Amino acid sequence: MTEEDQIVFHMPPEQRAHIEKRIAEYDVRPPFDEKKCKEEYKESIEWNFQYKAENLPQEIVEQIADIRVFTLGYCTREVMLQLNKQNAENRREMERISKEFREVMMAQDISDEIHGRIQYHDCTVTELLTGDEVVIRFDNRGGFTNINKLTLVAPEIIKQDGGIVGSYWLYQELYRIDNGYELHVLFDGENMPELIVRCADILVEEE
């Protein structure tokens, strides 16, 4: 292999520290709890029963003999063909929406550095303070960042659902406005709470 064909990746110190922290937490995890695992599996299966019954097209649900068996991954050929057709339609719609979204995002005059300040996927919100500033603190052990404090300067809260504290930061969108930014955040919790805030600046720090 020639030298020009070699790619050397130098891991940033903060990324290495984050990985080492996750490994250390894994090494001291509690012993396997068989009873708890069975209870969580039962709850997960029951949730899947209800989710599929509520979200699949009704005409397909009516053809499923036993939703419990379907949840485990089994169905008739006729149902599978209809699911494949529905999946293709959903995929086309998602591609259309994604294309429109990318075009809107590319039109925003926002640097990668600013986008990097709002990457908290899978971090848990531990505190949300509102006032002259909006301050959000995180438990970032489940996420991909060492930053655990986000401050929105000179905020105007457009929407603030209940249940944000204790939920996971799932997805965000950031838009440029005349005097700063408009941040939209969707959280993975009961009723999928949302937060929409306009602000003059976005500050982050590791406490």
Textual characterization of the structure:
- It is built from six helices and eight strands, in the order H-H-H-H-H-H-E-E-E-E-E-E-E-E.
- It has 207 residues and is an alpha+beta fold.
- It starts with 12 loop residues before the first helix and ends with a strand.
- The mean pLDDT is 92.
Detail the topology: elements first, then pairings.
Layout: H1 13-27, H2 34-55, H3 58-61, H4 67-71, H5 77-106, H6 112-115, E1 124-129, E2 133-139, E3 149-153, E4 156-160, E5 168-177, E6 180-188, E7 194-199, E8 201-205
Antiparallel strand pairs: 1-2, 2-3, 3-8, 4-7, 5-6, 6-7
From the helix content, strand content and strand pairing, which structural class follows?
A: alpha+beta
- Write the H/E string, N to C: HHHHHHEEEEEEEE
Give the overall pLDDT as a whole number. Answer: 92
Overall outline:
globular
The tally of strands reads 8
Order of strands across the main sheet: 1-2-3-8
Identify the notable features of this structure and list them briefly.
207 residues, single chain, 4-stranded antiparallel sheet, alpha+beta
